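Format notes (please read before filing issues)

Several people have asked whether sequences and structure tokens are stored in separate files. They are not. Every record keeps both together, in the order shown below: the sequence lines, then the token lines. Line labels are part of the format and must not be stripped during preprocessing.
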Amino acid sequence: MRFRKKYVMPRISTVLVVFVCAMIGFGIWGCKKQEPQEEDITSTEPAEQEPQKEDISPTEPASVGNVNKIAFASNRDGNYEIYIMNTDGSGLKRLTNNTDDDLFMSWSPDGRKIAFESRIGENPEIYVMNADGSEQTNLTNNPSRDHVPSWSPDGQKIVFYSLKDDNYEMYVMNPDGSNKQRLTRNRSHDMAPSWSPDGMKIVFCSERDGNFEIYIMNADGSEQERLTNNPARDVSPSWSPDGEKIAFATIKDRKSEIYVMNTDGSDLTRLTNNPANEGNPSWSPDGKKIAFVSSRDGNNEIYVMNTDGSEQKRLTNNPARDRWPCWSPIVPPENSIK
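Then the structure lines:
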């Protein structure tokens, strides 16, 4: 267990608070109990609230490092910690148990490691741990704010974004934290990276053209190209395993829905359509399902649906906020961790 000073995020800019890591989920700020209402998917910080203690037992032992697992973050025990579950919502197991928030997970391609963001001390850092929660190691360890890791398909790199150069830019590093290299250079915020399955491209969102849009670039940061162009904010991109589609969330008038498009920005299709907010899409490794977050039941829960938006099913059901699902990779049984 790591004991650390509580992190309090400094106020940055209105736009950034509206988004940071867009993906960082939904959330109505405040500690007081209130009637269910629409939560704001645009928020970038975990909502402050009175600690909620919930009995999550029984939690059957869960083998990790194999198929049929979804990692997610939940504040059901007072602050955000990382959990895993089977893809039907069973087999719940808590992986982290720290005094600060742990969130934004990314599995290594072999399923043996999980990279994540931890809100330690005065600034967030990128950590890595074994898939059973052991051996948590700080990879970034610097005074800047480092967010939202994404593991490359070959397991050789981790991309993330950092505030070390006065605005959020994309960086890449080795899985041990060495050889950090900057990928983007502009005066606007670049956030929420996701690798293409062949490792040749990175999709991300940027506000360089006035509002957040989806962009792609080569893995070395070259040939940056905008894919979306509309008045709404497009965030939280996630590349399909076959490399043909990108799922993302579109935010308009504080209302968020999930869309999918071709990797050149064409054939835009809406997958969710209801009064609640939906976001943080994550593809299953076989490309047949998308896990996502929805506030349709009054608070954030993890759902799963077919890639055409049909058969939406809730996986979690508790009074706390469950966010940021991340599907585990398919790995051979001999490589799985028991």
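For reference, the curators noted about this record: Residues 14-19 form the longest helix (6 residues). Residues 14-48+61-335 form a domain with the Neuraminidase fold (CATH 2.120.10.30).
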